[in-house]
Every structure is written in C-alpha cells, then in structure tokens.
C-alpha cells in the first residue's frame, strides 16, 4: 500500500482519542462491531494501515480482524485508479515499426479474465498479508512485463519446447553467465493494469477437528475484469543478415509466440495458483491486432479490393467518391433518378453502371477504404477476435510470406 502524505500520523490518531476508544472497546468481553466500525470509519486507508500495525504490535488479533473487514469492504467497491496508467503505458503505436528494424511486429489485444488472477506483492507493509502486486508509484494492481515474459516461457515449456532450444533463446534470451554466452531476447512486454480487486478466502482445516478457524484472505483480480496485453518483437540481431533467413526466423517466431500466448491465456494460466485454475482468460478478445511490415491480407479486404474497372470513373484517386455524386442535403450517394439528371453534365454515360456501383459501395465502401489504408501503409494490421483466430491469422501470415524453397533447383525447369 502507498501511504498518503496527507494522512495522519499515529501520534495524531492517538491525540484525537481514536486509539484509546478502539482499545477500550476491544478489551470488552463482547466488543460491539457497530462501535468499532464507527471508530475505524473515521480513518483513511493509510491511517487504517498505521492503526493495524499498531494493534498487531500490541497483540490485539481481534482488532486486526476488524480493521481487515473495514479495509476489504472499502477496496472491493473502490476504483483502483488505473486509468492514468492505462493512458500512459497502453499506447502501443504501430508507427513504432517505422523506426524499428525490419521484421519487427506487435501483438496486442484486450482480454477478459475467466478466472480470478492472483499474484504476490513485494511490499510487506500491508493490511492484507497476501496482497496483489501493485505498481510502485501509482499503487494500482497490475501484471508487470517480467511476469508476462516468465508465464509465456513457462507455457511454451509445457507445450514441449526445451529451455536450451535455440529458438527459445533467441526469443527470450538467456541468463547473464559470462560475456560470451549472454544473449538478449527479441521480446519486450508491456504491463497490464486493472481497475478492481476482490478477495478469495482459504480456510485451512485442522487435521483433528477437520474444521477451519483462521480464514486466510487473498487479494485477487476478480473474474470478468478487463485489461490489455501488448508485446513487441524486435529482431535486432538479424540486422545485416540475408533476407531469406530473416523472414524465415521471424515467421517461425511469430507462430511459436502466438501458440504460447494462446496456451498461456486459455490452458496453463498466468500468475499464482495456476494449478488450481486461477489466471485463465476467456477465449474471446477485443481489438486484437498483429502489426507487422510483412504482408497481411484479410479476406474482407481482398474482397473489397476487387473493384470492377468501370467503377473507377466514380472514384477519386484516394478512393473517395467524387463530390458531384454526393447529395449535399443528405451526404449520401445520389439517387438513381438524380444521377440520370446530372450524368451528361459531369461526363458520365451509363445510369446502369452507377446503379451497380451504388449497390457495391453501400455494401463494401467502408471495407474498401480500410483496405486502401492498409495497402498504402508501411505496417499491415491483421485483426482477430479470439485466441483461436490469432492462431489462424499468424499461420496465414506465415503462409503468405514464406520464402520459396529453391534447394532442389529451379522448379520451372
């Protein structure tokens, strides 16, 4: 927990009589929960923490539990303040590929937790002993890039890839043992932030009585929570290498990384207690994209690009409809009747062709404009709506850009 600089000190809390009122009530045989709640309700989160540590030092275990109850009720309904962090850290811009080495790519998507996520914070000065990991400055719950890296590597290990595999080493790097063997990996991970927390309860049972007496609170991210996953692949070590080998390695790595992402999110999980089912995401994602400087052809875009030659007369060079074919009062294409009135004036010949063009543009105009932006940009973006789609997309990218195998000579001979 991050202490609020404006919160009261223990001496100020004592001076106001809060500590004495609290300890007086706790000394009673049957402390009144309503009275304790009223006393503790006057304290902020940081002041609750200070009071909790004070009661802990004095050995008031029941007082500690009351403080925990108040704190848990507050945090379950509170916004964790991750909006600023998301604004700063989650701005993955595909134009970054313009300044990165060739064959770099970005994979990003918004995911939803299907099961709660649990982690362990490094901070020990807390009310909840098993608290979720929080960003040091902002104090909001998050998954750091280092955690994503470790979980993805673990998922690929579960999928059968060995630690000493050359592909694993070039993707993730290795340990810095000496200057000769150290190798930096090609993957870079962005942190993921969350808005809400919840609490899981574990109640260990006594072996003799088979009953639990001391429930353990574990802070978690509840199922249904949303966040964003982003990774960047930069093959800096391929600079100056042969194009064929560079393309081959990049496409191999893309497929393996996608396979690992799907396994991590849907099968093996991420975070703590994954063997108990925690840290699993739903199959569907939002705004899933793969940005790369390789060719990415979406079926819908291919369809939209198949523009009949005779339709070009109705379009400007940038793909927009010519102004004289737009009804100024509605902002839409002219009706067939109005086109017949104006066609000679603007040099058009056939009303039937315009009628066919109008039907085509109403169905495919938006996709056609998107396909033009993809065609003329240095980065191509493939979209996916589920983890299953991600596998299909990366395979399609690999198949479209695979280098021809000429090892056996010229196949045309």
- Helix fraction by DSSP (H/I, runs of at least 4): 25-40%
Report the sheet-strand fraction.
Answer: 5-15%
Q: List the total number of helices.
A: 13
Low-confidence stretches: 297-304, 373-378, 406-413
Taking Cα atoms only, what radius of gyration do you get, to the nearest Å?
30 Å
Keywords:
alpha+beta, disordered C terminus, 9 strands, 413 residues, two-stranded antiparallel ribbon, five-stranded antiparallel beta sheet, 13 helices, elongated, 12% strand
Q: How is the topology of this model organized?
A:
Blueprint: H1 10-15, H2 18-26, H3 33-40, H4 45-58, H5 61-76, H6 83-89, E1 105-112, E2 142-143, H7 145-158, H8 166-172, E3 187-189, E4 192-193, E5 198-202, E6 216-220, E7 226-233, H9 243-268, E8 284-292, H10 299-305, H11 336-342, H12 351-375, E9 380-386, H13 387-401
Antiparallel strand pairs: 1-7, 1-8, 2-4, 3-7, 5-6, 8-9
What does this protein structure show overall?
Helix 4 runs antiparallel to helix 5 and helix 9 (243-268) runs antiparallel to helix 13 (387-401). The protein is elongated and about 100 Å long. It has 13 helices and 9 strands. With 413 residues, it is an alpha+beta fold. The strands form 3 sheets. Strands 3-7-1-8-9 form a 5-stranded antiparallel beta sheet, with helices on one face. The chain has helices at residues 10-15, 18-26, 33-40, 45-58, 61-76, 83-89, 145-158, 166-172, 243-268, 299-305, 336-342, 351-375, 387-401, and strands at residues 105-112, 142-143, 187-189, 192-193, 198-202, 216-220, 226-233, 284-292, 380-386. Helices cover 39% and strands 12% of the residues.
């Amino acid at each position: 927990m991050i202490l609020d600089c404006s919160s009261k000190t223990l001496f100020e809390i004592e001076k106001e009589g809060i500590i004495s009122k609290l300890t007086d009530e706790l000394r009673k045989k049957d402390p009144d929960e309503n009275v304790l709640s009223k006393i503790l309700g006057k304290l902020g989160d940081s002041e609750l923490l200070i009071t909790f540590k004070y009661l802990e030092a004095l050995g008031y275990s029941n007082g500690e539990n009351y403080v925990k109850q108040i704190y848990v009720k507050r945090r379950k309904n509170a916004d964790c303040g991750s909006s600023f962090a998301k604004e700063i850290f989650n701005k993955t811009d595909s134009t970054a590929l313009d300044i990165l080495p060739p064959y770099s790519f970005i994979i990003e998507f918004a995911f939803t937790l299907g099961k709660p996520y649990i982690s362990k914070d490094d901070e020990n000065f807390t009310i909840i002993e098993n608290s979720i990991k929080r960003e040091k400055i902002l104090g909001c719950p998050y998954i750091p890039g280092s955690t994503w890296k470790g979980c993805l590597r673990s998922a690929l290990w579960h999928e059968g890839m060995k630690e000493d595999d050359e592909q694993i080493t070039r993707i993730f790097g290795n340990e810095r043992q000496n200057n000769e063997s150290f190798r930096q990996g090609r993957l870079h991970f962005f942190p993921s932030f969350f808005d809400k927390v919840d609490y899981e309860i574990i109640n260990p049972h006594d072996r003799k009585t088979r009953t639990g007496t001391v429930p353990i609170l574990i802070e978690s991210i509840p199922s249904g929570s949303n966040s964003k996953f982003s990774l960047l692949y930069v093959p800096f070590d391929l600079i100056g290498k042969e194009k064929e080998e560079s393309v081959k390695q990049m496409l191999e790595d893309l497929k393996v990384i996608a396979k690992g992402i799907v396994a991590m999110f849907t099968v093996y999980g991420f975070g703590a207690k994954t063997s108990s089912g925690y840290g699993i995401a739903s199959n569907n994602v939002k705004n899933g994209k793969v940005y790369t400087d390789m060719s990415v052809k979406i079926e819908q875009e291919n369809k939209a690009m198949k523009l009949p030659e005779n339709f070009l007369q109705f379009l400007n060079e940038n793909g927009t409809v010519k102004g004289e074919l737009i009804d100024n009062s509605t902002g839409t294409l002219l009706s067939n009747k109005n086109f017949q009135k104006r066609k000679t004036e603007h040099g058009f010949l056939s009303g039937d062709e315009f009628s066919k063009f109008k039907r085509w543009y109403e169905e495919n105009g938006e996709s056609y404009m998107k396909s033009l932006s993809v065609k003329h940009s240095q980065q191509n973006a493939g979209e996916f709506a589920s983890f299953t789609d991600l596998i299909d997309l990366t395979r399609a990218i690999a198949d479209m850009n695979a280098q021809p195998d000429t090892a056996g000579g010229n196949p045309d001979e």
